[in-house]
Amino acid sequence: MGTQGTVREDQVVMEADPLFERRQAKGRAAYRVFASTVFVGICLIWIYRVSYIPRVGERGRWVWFGMFMAELCFGFFWVFTQSLRWNFTRSYPFKHRLSQRHEEKLPGVDIFVCTADPVIEPPTLVINTILSVMSCNYPTEKLAVYLSDDGGSDLTFYALLEASHFAKYWIPFCKTNNIEPRSPETYFAHNSNEQQFTNYQEWSDVKNLYEEMKERIESTMERGSISKEIRDKHKGFSEWNQNVTKNDHQPIVQIVIDGRDETAVDNNGYRLPTLVYMAREKRPQYSHHFKAGAMNALIRVSSEISNGPIILNLDCDMYVNDSDAIRDALCFFMDEKKGHEIAYVQHPQTFNNITKNDLYANSYSVANKVELAGMGGYGSALYCGTGCFHRTESLCGNSYSEDNKLRLDTNYTKKNDKKTVNELEEAAKIVSSCSYEKDTLWGKEIGLVYGCAVEDIVTGLTIQCRGWKSVYYCPNKEAFLGVAPNTLEVALIQHKRWCEGLFQIFLTKYCPFIYGHAKIKLGAQLGYCAYLTWAPISLPTLYYVIVPPLCLLHGIPLFPQVSSKWFLPYAYVFISKTVYSMVETSACGSTIKGWWNLQRMWVFRRTTSYFFAFIDTIIKQVGLSQTTFAITPKMVTDDVLKRYKQEVIEFGSSNTMFTIIATLAVLNLFSFVGAMAKRVTDLEMDFKTLEMLMPQVILCGFVIMVNLPVYRALFFRNDKGCMPHGVMFKSLVLASLACLVPI
Ligand SMILES: O=c1ccn([C@@H]2O[C@H](COP(=O)(O)OP(=O)(O)O[C@H]3O[C@H](CO)[C@@H](O)[C@H](O)[C@H]3O)[C@@H](O)[C@H]2O)c(=O)[nH]1
Ligand SMILES: [Mn+2]
């Protein structure tokens, strides 16, 4: 009796233990006090601007108004960013409890990997992602992996076939030896000579198999076509006839591995996960809606084949770095008390090619560790397009409702057990055709939302506004790792796309203040706006890096003089913000140089990508152009890669963005040098005027410091990554003209 009693008690405790926990971060109160003092400083700055407007006829009256507008915008933007820090919480799953309680009834998980172009996104990269998910620590009969190929390329299909063969070696190798990460490329690159490996023979066999496969895929890529010998080996190749082009072809669905098939086993005799290739139908007369369209086709295709209640969405470059990632995420969905409210669990976007000092500020360490966690604190984590686990029903447009507690369908039912592979493929082709969505709510209320370059963010918002909660989970060990842009141009183009999409959300019916009103918390609405208003913040930034230096050159003071009491709020806001961001960035793992690089990227992005995005979004809203999607290249030449690794900024392109960057850098230099020269030669110049111009000297000096690599690229470098001469010429002319404009 005694023992039995204890057992039962233990069980009761176990049942009550939650599968995840949310903890508030320490030091919130202190932070709130600090933020309030900064806010007081900002208000004083506004008061100063209003009280000291130059009188009619005085120099710089209009410029002053501009300064006021800029500072007003910066202030509001700062308030948005505060809401991300106000309610900062972290989530922690307990995966051992999940295994204890639910091992037998784990749900089926459908994993979607999207690729769009075999050249920009090489098939070897794609299959590494596929292999890493196939070998996750999860019951294989409950896993189904789908590759959506918007490139519609038989080369990608071929690589997937190769991967399906190699998986028979790779999966058991990973599982019996418990190796990490399970992307073969990364694993072998980091374990190039595994002496301690117990079974060295096995290790080198698998490595050789991988190398050989890679070699075959790469040589096929070089040739650009599939040999007849290979084509004859799989019926799937018959889909690629003469008429198939990237943007014009019939739907192609191939079940490469049928997980139901008991003979589809790996080398240890264990069942393999389902593996499906899909190239949805594309026709020039139909808009394909980029990644959102691909995802929606995948949702329908998977519902025909495996119909898992959970979907994991990954970009083709995001391999699984922690093979327990699925289990961690399920803790949130399967928690007895709160799990039923949760629509999705988002992981941060992390990358495996960040340089030591994060040259292009791609690590997003503060966003990942602080800001997005802050959104999670409101139960409104952003959906970021990759590394996100979805509840299928919420992604499919269902609303959350309290009295209709929807729980996960944990009984793994094979609704399509009786259909043959052929029948499944035919059914899947129907739902992945262009006309299928005609006159349906797909892209509006069902699936991912169409018409926005950041389909992920807007879709996440609509899910939250249907009553669901979302979780942000940032584990210590990154669950997924991808490829970050490794040239400046690519980094800026990526930001332009994001920024355009984000601002578009702000301007349309999806604006969080309207669409989210009374549906998501006010903090979350403000938090969304910290991202959605990136584009307009370009205007005050441009103003600040153009007008004060020109006024410095012309001797017009725009700030209170250093000895005035009004200078204090400026100094306080500037210094406290700078020091705080330095501390925050370092606490999130960046170096000081990394922080400095972030400041530079912040100037570059705001004056180029965000500004262009602002203009393009306006043009789009007026109806003059359509949404586009510039895919981020994942590979660069060795020469470029070498400079990236040495942290030398890559400017070698005549993109207009670079002309702007160069012009602003030169303009600030001219103003600074010009003003100094005047002070030296002009004897009338007294100390008073110099003191009045001091804040502008500091500001201008700061911009010059940030731009040091730009001057180097303009005047001193001669490698292929330096600024092209055309850009240099244009920037010198434009900056000189600007200096001549009378104010
Ligand atoms: O027509 C398209 C275009 C893109 N993709 C895929 O979408 C993913 C993301 O594209 P990428 O060029 O890598 O853009 P990123 O800026 O790196 O992507 C981020 O931002 C996008 C929104 O702008 C989100 O969709 C992504 O998930 C998110 O990682 C890749 O797997 C592509 O293959 C498609 O499937 N079809
Ligand atoms: Mn990407």
Question: What are the key terms here?
Answer:
single chain; 743 residues; alpha/beta; 2 domains; two-stranded antiparallel sheet; 27 helices; 8% strand; disordered N terminus; binds uridine-5'-diphosphate-glucose; binds manganese (II) ion; cell wall biogenesis/degradation; transmembrane
Word description of this protein:
- By secondary structure, the chain is an alpha/beta fold.
- It has two domains: 95-484, Spore Coat Polysaccharide Biosynthesis Protein SpsA, Chain A; 521-740, no CATH class.
- It has 27 helices and twelve strands.
- The protein has an eight-stranded mixed beta sheet, sandwiched between helices. Strands 1-2 form a two-stranded antiparallel ribbon.
- Strand 3 (109-115), helix 5 (123-134) and strand 4 (143-149) form a beta-alpha-beta unit.
- Helix 2 (28-51) runs antiparallel to helix 20 (567-587), helix 4 packs across helix 11 and helix 6 (154-177) runs antiparallel to helix 8 (200-223).
- The longest helix has 26 residues, at 61-86.
- It starts with a helix and ends with a helix.
- The relative contact order is 0.11.
- The structure holds uridine-5'-diphosphate-glucose and manganese (II) ion (MN).
- Residues 315, 317, 482, 632 line the site of manganese (II) ion.
